[in-house]
Amino acid sequence: MTAPVARRRSDSWTLFTLGGAPVVVAPTSLLLGLLIAGSWYPVVSSALAGHGAITVLGTVAATVLGVGVSVLMHELAHGAAGTLLGRRPVRYELYLWGGRTSFGPSSRWRPWKDVITSLAGPAANLTLWAVGHGLLDRIESAPVFVAAWALTWVNLALAVFNALPGLPLDGGHALAALVEQLTGRRVLGQRLAAVGGLIVVGGVAWRWILAPLLAGRQPDTFSLFLAVMIAGPIATTSWRVLGLGRGTRAAARLDLRTLTRPVAVVPADTPLTAAREQLDAGAGLVLVAEGSRILGTLDAPALAELERSGLPDAAAVAVSQVCTVLPAAAVTTRATGQPAADALARARTVSRWLVLVEGGRVAGAVPTGAR
């Protein structure tokens, strides 16, 4: 059973939908794009001496746009690999400096598939680098050459950096999955990858902050900003996985199965009155399904709001006409520990319920506390 695409959230812009999965971009990417453009302008202007400002600006804009396309290709490679291995993507998120591909549940997923899916992104950037490297000698236009040269090496940097064995980088996920596949110990793999993440943070701090200071130079503002943007999420994720943050012990003891409420699954043409009977009989949530696809949900507060609006005839209204779309972030296959706590936190931002799926079946729904 799969969840439909999440609705557009106010903190992101939906560019388009691919295979049922929305491709969204964070507004902060625009800010970062402007910062990158500002830092590259003097370099491009120097490389294109003799060309006008419009040509320089166009080259910078094309390069920044090319970086965004490179990140998109990276995430789409994750999605394609997951699809081929039996797990469809439900959401692509782009941040210009990186991205995230979210997948739906799968009952036959194995850790080795995570290794392949994780490394597919860096492999895509490595392929773009190889193609660009092979084309550079054939480019005669100076502006095109500058943009292509920059994008070629940006893709190499994306491939190498994302392949580093530290969470939440692709290489970290691949390392954690590989250890789990070989040893059967998921926590061990996560912890090893988290240690790798802290090592990566140390490397970033050394490259952009400590090394310039030791050389008697002041780190420039853009380098500091980039170091924080890159190292911050890595440090936060690794710190949490290693259990060094507040609340991690409580999260480790969490079991969503003890918090679930019964779920009633009904066909799309079910009358609204029948859904009311299911809720009155004790169901916390009604899932509206069409075959194996979830169309949406209906709970007591939503039904009460509908009734207050003055429905003409509840018996003549089908649940599919009034149900609320279930966001992908409101579905999880992880019932225990930190992954379950993370799923509950994500669901709280988009839904009143977190639907727990185990063994390909809906096990229940957990109230998130959202209104």
From TrEMBL:
An MF annotation (GO) of this entry: metallopeptidase activity
Coiled-coil positions: none
An individual GO BP term: proteolysis
Membrane topology: Multi-pass membrane protein
Keyword Transmembrane helix found: yes
Keywords in alphabetical order: Hydrolase, Membrane, Metal-binding, Metalloprotease, Protease, Transmembrane, Transmembrane helix, Zinc
Top-rank lineage group of the source organism: Bacteria
InterPro entries assigned to the protein according to its UniProt record, in alphabetical order: Peptidase_M50 (IPR008915)
UniProt KW Repeat keyword: no
Transmembrane regions listed in the UniProt entry: 12-41, 53-73, 192-210, 222-242
Cofactor: Zn(2+)
Annotated ranges, domain Peptidase M50: 148-187
One Pfam family recorded for the sequence: Peptidase_M50
One GO location term (cellular component): membrane
Subcellular localization: Membrane
Main location class: membrane
Record family assignment: Belongs to the peptidase M50B family.
Protein name: Zn-dependent protease (Includes SpoIVFB)
Organism: Actinomyces ruminicola
Organism phylogeny: Bacteria, Bacillati, Actinomycetota, Actinomycetes, Actinomycetales
